[in-house]
Amino acid sequence: MVLKLSTLFLRTLREDPVDAEVASHKLLVRAGYIRRAAPGIYTWLPLGLRVLGKVEAIIREEMNAIGAQEVHFPALLPREPYETTGRWTEYGEGLFRLQDRKGADYLLAPTHEEMFTLLVKDLYSSYKDLPAYLYQIQNKYRDEARPRAGLLRGREFIMKDSYSFNIDDEGLEEAYQAHRAAYLKIFARLGLEILPVFATAGAMGGSKSEEFLHPTPVGEDTFVRSAGGYAANVEAVTTIVPEAIDYTDAPAFEVKDTPDTPTIETLVECANEVAPRTGNPWTAADTLKNVVLAAKMPTGERRLVAIGLPGDRNVDLKRVEANISSHLETGGEVELEAATEDDLKKHPTLIKGYIGPALGTDDAVLGLEGSSKILYLVDPRVVAGTSWVTGANAPGQHVFGLVAERDFTTDGTIECVEVHAGDPAPDGSGPLETARGIEMGHIFQLGRKYAEALDLKVLDQNGKLKIVTMGSYGVGVTRAVAALAESNHDENGLVWPRNVAPADVHLVVTGKQVELFEAAQKIADELDAAGVEVIYDDRPKVSAGVKFSDAELIGVPTIVVIGRGLADGVVEVKDRATGTRTDIAVDEVVAELIALAKA
Amino acid sequence: MVLKLSTLFLRTLREDPVDAEVASHKLLVRAGYIRRAAPGIYTWLPLGLRVLGKVEAIIREEMNAIGAQEVHFPALLPREPYETTGRWTEYGEGLFRLQDRKGADYLLAPTHEEMFTLLVKDLYSSYKDLPAYLYQIQNKYRDEARPRAGLLRGREFIMKDSYSFNIDDEGLEEAYQAHRAAYLKIFARLGLEILPVFATAGAMGGSKSEEFLHPTPVGEDTFVRSAGGYAANVEAVTTIVPEAIDYTDAPAFEVKDTPDTPTIETLVECANEVAPRTGNPWTAADTLKNVVLAAKMPTGERRLVAIGLPGDRNVDLKRVEANISSHLETGGEVELEAATEDDLKKHPTLIKGYIGPALGTDDAVLGLEGSSKILYLVDPRVVAGTSWVTGANAPGQHVFGLVAERDFTTDGTIECVEVHAGDPAPDGSGPLETARGIEMGHIFQLGRKYAEALDLKVLDQNGKLKIVTMGSYGVGVTRAVAALAESNHDENGLVWPRNVAPADVHLVVTGKQVELFEAAQKIADELDAAGVEVIYDDRPKVSAGVKFSDAELIGVPTIVVIGRGLADGVVEVKDRATGTRTDIAVDEVVAELIALAKA
Questions:
Q1: CB-based contact A124:A164 (threshold 8 Å)
Q2: Residues 6+ apart with CB under 8 A from B19
Q3: Are A160 and A63 spatial neighbours (Cβ–Cβ below 8 Å)?
Q4: N or C: which end of chain B has fewer CB within 10 A?
Q5: Cα–Cα distance list, B264 to A49, A154, A282, B273, B396 (Å)
Q6: For B61, phi and psi rounded to 5 degrees?
Q7: Across the interface, do B123 and A9 touch by the CB < 8 Å criterion?
Q8: How far off is chain B from A442, nearest CA to CA, in Å?
């Protein structure tokens, strides 16, 4: 079907939409691919729907190729299964919840682990039925606090989500690797640069997890990579833990007056005055900074957590959030924020600016200690034997030479500091550099969390019931369209890779003579008959200039201009990406364009 | 891709699901096409998704063929546009409503008139842009009071909805006829018997409207048809209005004692005693029955309405509901029920069992009269000059010879009586018969209702702003799958028409010899290479009996049995619909099956 611009439901815009921040959003709206219906909620126009369909087809082919089978779940789901796994609560405000006319609770599904688990439980009962890989391409809903960047972070969006079901861990690893390989193929076919990075599992639960990031400055995710090939989401970066230090001969700690030193900067200055070290002045790295955070638990409870870290580092809240679940003995995501004055007032032993580990010299313990009511977690660099300048839990006082393990205890370590460029990669592959990316896919080894909660068991080889182990795998489909637009555009508009372009060829007639339109129509029909997709700008009263800018804006790979040259038997073929123009004989152009399209 | 039953995500059931009432629901679940996720909400399994995809493809082709362009709207929509047209309220409990984290109101769209109107307003501005036909195939949501019959009446379901935009009424008529013709083609290609019937517009608003009904006893809609070709939804049937009668010489009415006659039956008996007519005894048709109803208005108000009708008829609440809007000066659907004792107590002049038009003989008006607080509507048969026996608004009294127009006034006529088989078709094409059907499609001439409410205007030929006129057109896509199953099954299972079957051929191996499986695999591969879709039952340890019943249950058009005959060089080809079995030489069977599939 030739798309004629005289009738195509399209209106290109010369101005960027006011709410658009990123190029993909601006251009997809301006070129008539999408329109905003509500914050984070978009309508697909004919051109956009074509691109979306091609992205979906590629994903579908690669999923089918690994033996995954397509199903389709509802978006509107009952509360009960999500209640059973705890996610009804854990998702917090990110979940769209509603009630039906009878007052029964429903949700708009953000992801479908529960339903797939129950479906497999309904259909299957034996290890012989496994492995099963199932997927769907379907609408997902998340009530994002800040929907942004058009399709990049929407509230209604399309995901391909798959789930694997295996009898044992080896099977899960195989399923995981099959999906990993399929994802790499999918993104390669889409022409989207992708870096798989280690990730944390977040609210999904489970163990092993990787994100497929598309590196771009407009990405929301910060990740790190080393020249040696290490790559991880910052949440997942691990610190090389220094060796413990023998503290047998370490001098005892001393409390000193350090008036007016509530910050690391003032403390370091003061320390070099009250306890100068020759040739080796105190720096921020010698201090132990203790930051008190408040965790908003899924239950609604507000719980304080103290984080101890070297004073030359700052806390990265997202990293703490990603790694704190196991310490709180709770599933799901925990939101953290700095403790308020009110929070601190409830713990009068904490003196703001002078907080430190409990010194334990008094019968009344002041400050932070392991297993106290305030969870006290430290950066992995705080190993046994390290010696610190830190708060003495008294106004205007710090303690010098406080030695980890000998002088204070903690509730464990946590990855909590901002990762800096230059930090070593955990696998020894060199210093890290930081970059930004868009999360295009995410794969998880869920393990038995969902199967256990929903009682998905099958009979094993010995006739015994065994809990199934699961993986879950997602690709952001609408987000892929945005990422493709983001990475394929220039100042004039979109520049689609041929695999996903809404058409192969964009025919432009310049001039008014009927012969031009007849020639163009003939070329269009011949291409269409050969299966080459054509946009034909047949608008009679539109200037050549407007037609050219529309063609550049829409971004089909090959633009063909039928104009003055036709009298000499040639048309102009322009490559949208390179700008190269070639005159081609009109009786050869169809064969040429077919060759280009099928290349 | 050959679907092998050893790995296909499928489990057939021998028992009907407990909640299933109709054959399509039972068989689609038993044969592994769908599963229930919540009341009226279904999951599509691989076989079901294939059928759904084929139905969608046929619809898409026919919509594209009339120049309709596909777009895709969100399902989650903001309240505002629906507020503007009044449908946020009018939909009542049938609408799923929810709030986002900021407390903004959203809905899950039951249909998209508002959004399409706004989109066209956003993109188009001139009559030159019109006509525009747009459509989508998309999830719809309705919070049905009684979801039933599986996919036949769901709460999340797929619809193809299109909308036409024209500058004038002639254009609208053309768009309407184009969609009407496309719908007839779609249902013909699906192999679904369809009868277009006149319908009322309901909550949609607008004027001309037809439903596409699939006649079946399990249908929820009652319709009527005449041998002469008239067909209408009962809500839309019109009564042939008798001519008015000259009442100049009619005798004056008389009030008579009719003790203990609260029903038509007792009244008729009594009338023949107290006022016998020779040779022409009173019958129920001589009485005017006045039924008081309570209308639950969209605003929440409860308003009484009285309906006057010949005593040999009963009120059809659905017909009254469908036709009462214009009398209530309100848009949208009104729910009606019989007035309660409490309702009647508020109007002490209404004496239950003896209610009649106001006789106007008192200074205090007793009973029903036009433009009183109780709206009084009568059946169209109650024309001027007709004379009635009816309640006298006093206990135990009726009035005889009360003449319409001379003795009482009303607020108008309404189609309100139950249509009976034998009633004349309004177009004079003979007596009506009643039947039941499933509404598969519905087309509406909306006119300017939505464009007016949402201010969709374009410049006309004279440069003046003109309101656009619209049509809206729907096909129930998931419902079509159910209707196909309903009309294509036998006692052994589904019997799909080839156009929508999940595959063309179902290969069954009976026996254990490796040669049989090799031969089957070869046939499967050759068919697959030729584009014939194959289900291959390669399960090694399943009995021939189970394989046969699964094949019958799944209902693919051609079943091929590779078994004992292979030694003699033949396989058995069975037609699922007719049961005909033919032995075909194994080296000819592929060509034969390709011919069948492409026929």
A1: no
A2: B36
A3: yes
A4: C
A5: 62, 63, 106, 14, 13
A6: -60, -45
A7: yes
A8: 24
Cα gap A22→A486, rounded to integer Å:
8
Chain B residues whose CB is inside 8 A of the A123 CB are 9-11, 32
Is omega for the bond preceding B131 within 30 degrees of 0, making it cis? Answer: yes
The mean pLDDT value for A286-298 works out to: 89
| Number of CB atoms found within 10 A of residue B497's CB | 17
Q: Give the integer Cα–Cα distance in Å for B24 and B34.
A: 11
Tokens for A76, please give them: 């509107």
Chain A residues in contact with B67 by the CB 8 A cut-off are 7
Q: In sequence order, what are the beta bridge partners of A290?
A: A308
Tens digits of residue pLDDT in A344-394: 888 888 888 899 988 765 545 566 766 667 889 999 999 999 999 999 988
Average pLDDT over residues A316-328: 86
pLDDT of B330: 65
Q: What is the pTM of this model?
A: 0.87
- Residue-by-residue DSSP string for B33-101: SEEEEETTEEEEPHHHHHHHHHHHHHHHHHHHHTT-EE-B--SEEESHHHHHHTHHHHTGGGSEEEE-T
> Which two tokens mark B409?
């006034």
> pLDDT tens-digit profile of A418-458?
999 999 999 999 999 999 999 999 999 999 989 999 999 99
The answer to whether the beta carbons of residues B307 and B317 sit under 8 Å apart is no
**Structural Rg of chain A based on CA atoms:** 30
Show Cβ contacts of residue A582 under 8 Å, excluding neighbours closer than 6 positions. Answer: A572, A573, A574
Query: Could you give the CA distance from residue B71 to residue B247 in angstroms, rounded to a whole number?
Result: 61
Kindly list the structural domains of chain B, giving each domain's residue range(s) and its CATH number in brackets, ordered by start. 16-74+109-236+433-486 (3.30.930.10), 254-403 (3.90.960.10), 503-598 (3.40.50.800)
For residues A505 and A503, give the distance between their C-alpha atoms in angstroms, rounded to a whole number.
6
Model pLDDT for residues A219-262, shown as the tens digit of each residue: 888 899 999 889 888 888 889 999 999 999 999 999 999 999 99
Contact call for A76 and B38, based on CB within 8 A:
yes
Mutate to test the interface with B, among A101, A133, A140 (most CBs of B within 10 A): A101
Q: What is the pLDDT of residue B91?
A: 87
Q: Do A35 and B119 touch (CB under 8 A)?
A: yes
Q: What is the pLDDT of residue A332?
A: 60
Which tokens belong to B424?
A: 């004349």
Length of chain A: 599
Taking an 8 Å cut-off on Cβ atoms, the answer to whether B38 and A101 are in contact is no
Q: What is the pLDDT of residues B190-230, one digit of tens each?
A: 999 999 998 876 555 557 899 999 999 888 888 999 998 89
pLDDT at B63 over 70: yes
Whole-angstrom distance, CA of residue A184 vs CA of residue B367 = 80
The whole-chain average pLDDT of chain A stands at 92
Region of poorest pLDDT, from A417-426, B159-168, B490-499, B501-510: A417-426
Q: Among A246, A240, A176, A183, which Cα is nearest to A208's?
A: A176
Size of interface A-B (CB pairs under 8 A): 134
Question: What's the CA gap between B293 and B289, in Å, rounded?
Answer: 13
Both structure tokens of B325: 């809007």
- The verdict on a CB contact (< 8 Å) between A132 and B9 is yes
User: Given the structure tokens 């002639």, which residue do they identify?
Assistant: B170
Residue in the structure block whose two tokens are 């009527």: B224
Place of tokens 């939101």: A335
Instruction: Identify which of A243, A193, A184 has the alpha carbon closest to the alpha carbon of residue A62.
Output: A184
Strand duo A302-310 + A375-378: pairing: parallel
Would you state the pLDDT for residue A333? 67
What value of ipTM does the predicted structure carry? 0.86
Quote the pLDDT of residue B344. 85
Q: Do A193 and A483 form a contact (C-beta atoms < 8 A)?
A: no
User: Closest Cα of chain A to B455: distance in Å?
Assistant: 17
Smallest CA–CA distance from B47 into chain A, residue: A71
